[in-house]
Amino acid sequence: MNQPITSRLAARLGLNILLDGVLAALAVLAAGWLAKPASPWPHPEALPLAAAGAIWLIGVPFGLARLHWRFTALRDLSRIGGASILTAILLTLLLIGAGMRLPSPSYPPILALCLIVALTTPRLLYRLGREPGGAGGTNTAKAILVGTGETAELFISALARSDTVPYRVVGLMALSQRHAGRRIHGHDIISSVGQAEPALARLHKANALPDLFIITSPELTGDPLAGLLRAAEQYGVRVQRTPTLTALAPANQTSLQLQPIAIEDLLNRRQVVLDREGMAGLIRGRRVLVTGAGGSIGSELARQLAGLAPAEIMLLDNGEFALWQIDLELAETWPGTRRRAVIADVRDRERIAALCDDFRPELVFHAAALKHVPIVEANPLEGLLTNVLGTKAVADAAQASGAALMVLISTDKAVNPSSVMGATKRLAEMVCQGLDIAARHGAAEMRCVTVRFGNVLGSTGSVVPLFRRQLAQGGPLTVTHPDMQRYFMTVREAVGLVLQASVVGSGEAAIEDGGIFVLDMGEPVKIIDLAYQMIRLAGLRPDIDVKVEFTGLRPGEKLFEELFHGSEAPAPTEHAGLLMASPRTADRRVVNHAIQEIALAAAHGDAAGALSILARMVPEFVHNVDGGEPGLAISAAAR
User: Fold this and answer.
1) Which of 20, 217, 537, 620 could connect to 147 by a Cys-Cys bridge, CB 3.0–4.6 Å?
2) What integer pLDDT is reported at residue 319 of this predicted model?
3) CA distance 188 to 211
4) Nearest-angstrom CA–CA distance, 502 and 517
């Protein structure tokens, strides 16, 4: 197999050497004519042959014969320039050493310039001849690249290296208006993203609309991207993204396969600067336990924690496949991080206590929970056992084993809950609030931080994966109510802020006893708008290509979620993206007694009894049992 490749390479190197020699000889002839037009023939007559030999000799250390003409770049041109100058100097010295007169005093620089032109021009012409941008085939889509000059150039270069031309670049669109009117690789920058609609109007009038926009810059997100999508939809232009730019490998055809716009890109959220040093100081060299490590939040916690150099991570989950996935990912991404993958149920007090006694975690991130509202509505005792008793089992085991900090992942559904899931998470908050108050007053050693936030885009069981699956099946997309709205945040951002809250909550910051950290979720998003946007991102038309159907509110659902109870006045913190809910606390002994009652009721299968205890502990819990108008008739006093 190697012999044909070696022979082909040798043939190409030989051809390059021959061409360089011929071009150097022609450069000598041209230099003689330019230096002395009256007597252009070289003297001695063997000078062109000497030039060929010189370029062969000097070209070896410069690697001229190995340069690929099709991929000639600036670095290659500098090599050619250096070799040409040295060749001119060598030939000049040979002439002077042989007692020959130079055609003119300007002959050496003229010779050097002629060599540079002769050796570079054919290479550049060859590369230009292989560049995309011609008429293309009948299936070649006309594309406008959207992004920075650097990213657009990288995509054009990858396109030039492709054996096929799937897209014909007909123009560029910059992120900033100050670049409009310039040219890159012969393509006009027709406008900025902010002027997309008038630019498309001009192209439509000139009958020159592109088939698609190709976004090359990952930073184009939020409102600017939404505006581009609206303009593109108006004129029937598709919008797609390039893959990760570092993946635009010259020899890889799949590197030019475009990707649809992710719904996460449309979240108009400002970037929050996080205290990375504080996070590293909290995690570095410590043993960390993550419960629910196979879930959306737990797995992202594991990823970010592994990058902060913990002494060891215990990944705990009761699902084998999900646990295997995150364990494998960490093994590949952070092979130097020690870890344990443990299958366990947080409701098993003895098992959790034994694991903590053996592992001795210093930090515990408790993400394990039953979170799907309809499932918990159908299985209320399971929700109580996992979300309430499981939280207390983990907290007790962590405290008994000497942990310094426990972080509880809570939810906006715990505020004025209308579902069993939300009410159980509120009771779990009360458990952790009691622990933290005890620690602040010296009655316990372990601090306990509670972090509350809304929906995570793309998380298991959330609406985005559901819509994607329904789109793949051709629709319809199902929305429970036209007025339904939710807060959304990306999982990476949410976990980053959870870690930030952990740093703040474990420090000496002035925080009220039992205060709950609440992530700044921005503005809520209407689910119907989300559905329409996902249909458009798939290149389809809402209610024409794909229908949207309303199925009615499900048991436990509310039209909108809240981040703060009426008695929890929101207060800013010193860190962007983090708010503090003024605490509503309950006596720790009362909470513990209620949990014992719930455990007893669950042991007897008494769901009604357990729920009555839950309602007693969470008085603002207005249970939306049948899926009718959800929990909106909450009393003013409760709010």
Assistant:
1) 217
2) 93
3) 17
4) 9
